Amino acid sequence: MGTPELFFMLSYHINSSRKIVHIDMDAFYASVEQRDNPSLKGKAIAVGGGGNRGVTTTASYEARKFGVRSAMPGWKAKQLCPHIIFVPPRFEVYKEVSRQIRSIFQRYTDLIEPLSLDEAFLDVTANKKNIPFAMEVAQQIMDLIKEETSLTCSAGVSYCKFLAKVASDMNKPNGLTIITPQKAVSFLEKLEIEKFFGVGKVTADKMRRMGILHGADIKKLSKLELAMKFGKAGLHFYDIVRGIDNRPVNPNRTRKSLAVERTLEVDLEQLEDILPVLNDITDKFFKRLTKADNFGRTITLKLKRSDFQTITRSISKNYFIKEKEELNEIAVNLLRQHQDAFDKIRLIGLTATNLEKELNDSENLQLSFDWEEE
Length: 374
Ligand code: TTP
Ligand code: MG
Fold this sequence. Notes:
This protein is α+β, with helices and mostly antiparallel strands. It contains 16 helices and twelve strands. Strands 5-6-1-7-8 form a five-stranded mixed β-sheet. Thymidine-5'-triphosphate binds near residues 24, 25, 58, 70 and 116.
């Protein structure tokens, strides 16, 4: 074997020395509501989604049997499951549970990367209790969560973040799943493309149109072909389909965006009707940025049309936009310039990215690679 080939093989060798656990609470908000209100136990419920135009945040497993899902409009949930009960969210309680589970994680490791209130990666390679098997750590954490919060979670164990996350989703609820380095390659070949890290709806549709359905189909493409078809993301797909994901569990991960959005009471069509609402949202957005003391260089206006199609338009500056007047001006200009793209609007949002605080992060290189698609 010549040196270049040997180098190639070495550089694409799976690094299986790490032990990563991914924990994800089961039907999180809905389970908390069922826990705290026994009359909801065993029932089909959705958190949020009430009222004329509400959207569900999540649904209990009983409601999921009828096809109710996160982010579904309430009317649709009701259509699928007529006996569904809509419960208003109690974010403070969810935050408290989130703190409780985090304190459990901390008994095992300080390398914790929370992804949301109910989800985190843990690097337990060298854990505080010197437990040699990551499966054992995961089982103990699941037991403690059950004991201390009366809620269940699911856990995934593997040698990298991507596979640990896929694993935690495989046997929900209350499931513990391991993907060993030996099994990873054949597992990834059979995995549907939408399950791959970084493949969102848009990329998945594009891949399907090209006849790419499973990992094995991605694997047939060269690095160059993938880069040509998917840009920077293509290079990342080349690696993950081979089970290579060296992203560290990053406990200092900073926020990548700050956003405010609002579903309107009624669909709006006329610019003069939309402008006052946009103004209001900009006020709230400015308060949020000020409170976080974190401003962005890029501002994105998001509009959801009444047919649920989402339109986003952005503008970037080479400085952090900190003035309320300027934010207002940008938001209004984005709306005016692109009014041809929309018709009736049901949701308006503003997002700031390329944040100031992110630049101070020593892990910024990693973060810029760690993109996600909406
Ligand atoms: P998820 O972990 O995605 O969902 P889940 O915990 O409800 O269910 P699963 O058992 O499949 O993990 O999200 C965690 C919580 O975040 C969820 O309970 C509600 C909230 N959420 C939203 O508010 N909007 C959304 O679109 C999603 C996906 C979640
Ligand atoms: Mg969850």
